[in-house]
């Protein structure tokens, strides 16, 4: 963080005092005195570097195989489908099992699956066009399995955080974790992926696998007191307890459904972004990676500033502002004619997403009882993330269906116009119905 320059004669010790005061006000000093938090933070940083690399590498790999937007959308669909299929079972497992061990096992599985992607690439270095469907199917299966492991890992990590920090530290901890995820996952990862792909197509996936292994080791070193589990009962009974709790807490159910609609819009636009970047903006792999860093910068700023914004404005006002900014960002991308304008829109979009996340995740972690946290979190993500794969398919289908009528460029822009309208409708609902 840079402080304002106040004169050439400012003493070094004064700058240190200012920096110490800023970090203390942000909660950094207290949080960083917690060993478990340091390990969890470091593991998140490393695993999200790998995620950021693969976030560019997977769709770029798909475009090397085919230019068909529906086939490219299938990879995104397969990646997100596990959130629909496995969110509820993952919640039961999270509340039954040692959450630390579950995170370690999930990361090790992701490491092995990522090496599987490397094997597919090496088996066909030039990807014959005649067999595009076969290779897309193989990549999609591996993406589905990776997404399944991610469901378990992410649900366990978010559920474990209240056992790592105190309740009054949740906003700061979530803000810092979201910030480092953005720094590594979107600010560092995509440009690095662009450079690695230019060197060798398998290279980013090798780095991704190594990041999962290192993250697993860091989480293994955490020391979290074992939870006192009640007698294990039927899976359906345990799942029903989470469903009953969520049904009687209308606000959290509202937020979950709103998040599902928002993520549908987000995946609809994100799926076509790779083609938008290549064909409208004329960017290569490295350029696209740099473009994604604009969104990461918004995420970093959001992680640092949004806890204070939420405290100052209140939860409801913060969420309404986030929704308005999300819609505005998509509208800008719809009409944008320059890379810089798209970069600004991505910055605003990610800042708004972080404002939404900091408010809603902390609210949820504080309100849900620990013995139900895994199950209710997973149900929340069932609604909030389970609709994402359909957003990916919708994005690919829109482009494929309207392209013969309006042309390729207009077809690639249309999801952003529809997305802006969708965010506007969600904002109107929140303004009328959401009461925090």
TrEMBL record:
<keyword id="KW-1133">Transmembrane helix</keyword>
<feature type="transmembrane region" description="Helical">
    <location>
        <begin position="317"/>
        <end position="336"/>
    </location>
</feature>
<feature type="transmembrane region" description="Helical">
    <location>
        <begin position="39"/>
        <end position="58"/>
    </location>
</feature>
<feature type="transmembrane region" description="Helical">
    <location>
        <begin position="102"/>
        <end position="122"/>
    </location>
</feature>
<feature type="transmembrane region" description="Helical">
    <location>
        <begin position="414"/>
        <end position="431"/>
    </location>
</feature>
<feature type="transmembrane region" description="Helical">
    <location>
        <begin position="342"/>
        <end position="361"/>
    </location>
</feature>
<dbReference type="InterPro" id="IPR036259">
    <property type="entry name" value="MFS_trans_sf"/>
</dbReference>
<feature type="transmembrane region" description="Helical">
    <location>
        <begin position="70"/>
        <end position="90"/>
    </location>
</feature>
<dbReference type="GO" id="GO:0005886">
    <property type="term" value="C:plasma membrane"/>
</dbReference>
<feature type="domain" description="Major facilitator superfamily (MFS) profile">
    <location>
        <begin position="252"/>
        <end position="436"/>
    </location>
</feature>
<keyword id="KW-0813">Transport</keyword>
<feature type="transmembrane region" description="Helical">
    <location>
        <begin position="251"/>
        <end position="276"/>
    </location>
</feature>
<feature type="transmembrane region" description="Helical">
    <location>
        <begin position="183"/>
        <end position="203"/>
    </location>
</feature>
<keyword id="KW-0472">Membrane</keyword>
<keyword id="KW-1003">Cell membrane</keyword>
<feature type="transmembrane region" description="Helical">
    <location>
        <begin position="282"/>
        <end position="305"/>
    </location>
</feature>
<protein>
    <submittedName>
        <fullName>Enterobactin exporter EntS</fullName>
    </submittedName>
</protein>
<feature type="transmembrane region" description="Helical">
    <location>
        <begin position="382"/>
        <end position="402"/>
    </location>
</feature>
<dbReference type="InterPro" id="IPR020846">
    <property type="entry name" value="MFS_dom"/>
</dbReference>
<keyword id="KW-0812">Transmembrane</keyword>
<feature type="transmembrane region" description="Helical">
    <location>
        <begin position="209"/>
        <end position="230"/>
    </location>
</feature>
<dbReference type="GO" id="GO:0022857">
    <property type="term" value="F:transmembrane transporter activity"/>
</dbReference>
<dbReference type="Pfam" id="PF05977">
    <property type="entry name" value="MFS_3"/>
</dbReference>
<dbReference type="InterPro" id="IPR010290">
    <property type="entry name" value="TM_effector"/>
</dbReference>
<feature type="transmembrane region" description="Helical">
    <location>
        <begin position="134"/>
        <end position="152"/>
    </location>
</feature>
């Amino acid at each position: 963080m840079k402080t304002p320059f106040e004169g050439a004669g400012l003493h070094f010790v004064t700058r240190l005092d200012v920096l110490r005061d800023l970090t203390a006000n942000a909660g950094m000093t207290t949080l960083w005195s917690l060993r478990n938090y340091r390990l969890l933070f470091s593991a998140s940083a490393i695993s999200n570097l790998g995620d950021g690399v693969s976030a560019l590498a997977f769709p770029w790999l798909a475009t090397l195989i085919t230019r068909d937007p529906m086939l490219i959308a299938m990879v995104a669909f397969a990646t997100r489908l596990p959130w629909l299929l496995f969110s509820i079972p993952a919640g039961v497992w999270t509340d039954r099992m040692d959450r630390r061990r579950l995170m370690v096992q999930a990361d090790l599985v992701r490491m092995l699956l990522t090496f599987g992607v490397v094997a597919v690439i090496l088996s066909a270095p030039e990807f014959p066009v005649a067999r595009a469907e076969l290779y897309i199917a193989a990549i999609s299966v591996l993406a589905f399995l990776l997404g399944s492991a991610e469901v378990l890992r992410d649900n366990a990590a978010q559920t474990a955080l209240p056992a790592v920090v105190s309740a009054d530290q949740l906003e700061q901890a979530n803000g810092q974790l979201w910030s480092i995820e953005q720094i590594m996952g979107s600010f560092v990862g995509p440009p690095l992926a662009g450079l690695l792909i230019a060197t060798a197509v398998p290279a980013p996936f090798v780095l991704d696998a190594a990041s999962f292994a290192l993250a697993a080791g860091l989480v293994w070193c955490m020391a979290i007191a074992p939870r006192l589990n009640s007698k294990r009962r039927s899976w359906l009974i345990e799942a029903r307890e989470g469903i009953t709790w969520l049904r009687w807490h209308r606000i959290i159910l509202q937020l979950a459904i709103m998040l599902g609609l928002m993520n549908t819009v987000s995946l609809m636009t994100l799926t076509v972004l790779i083609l938008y970047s290549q064909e409208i903006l004329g960017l290569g792999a490295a350029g696209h990676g740099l473009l994604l860093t604009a969104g990461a910068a918004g995420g970093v700023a959001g992680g640092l500033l949004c806890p204070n914004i939420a405290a100052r404005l209140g939860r409801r006002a913060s969420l309404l502002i986030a929704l308005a900014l999300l819609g505005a960002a998509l509208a800008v991308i719809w009409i944008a004619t320059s890379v810089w304008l798209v970069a600004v829109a991505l910055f605003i979009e990610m800042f708004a997403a972080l404002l939404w996340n900091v408010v809603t995740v902390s609210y949820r972690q504080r309100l849900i009882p620990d013995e139900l946290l895994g199950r209710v979190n997973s149900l929340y993500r069932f609604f909030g993330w389970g609709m994402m794969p359909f957003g990916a398919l919708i994005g690919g289908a829109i482009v494929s269906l309207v392209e013969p009528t309006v042309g390729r460029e207009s077809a690639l822009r249309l999801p952003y116009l529809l997305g802006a309208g969708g965010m506007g409708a969600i904002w109107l609902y929140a303004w009328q119905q959401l009461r925090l």
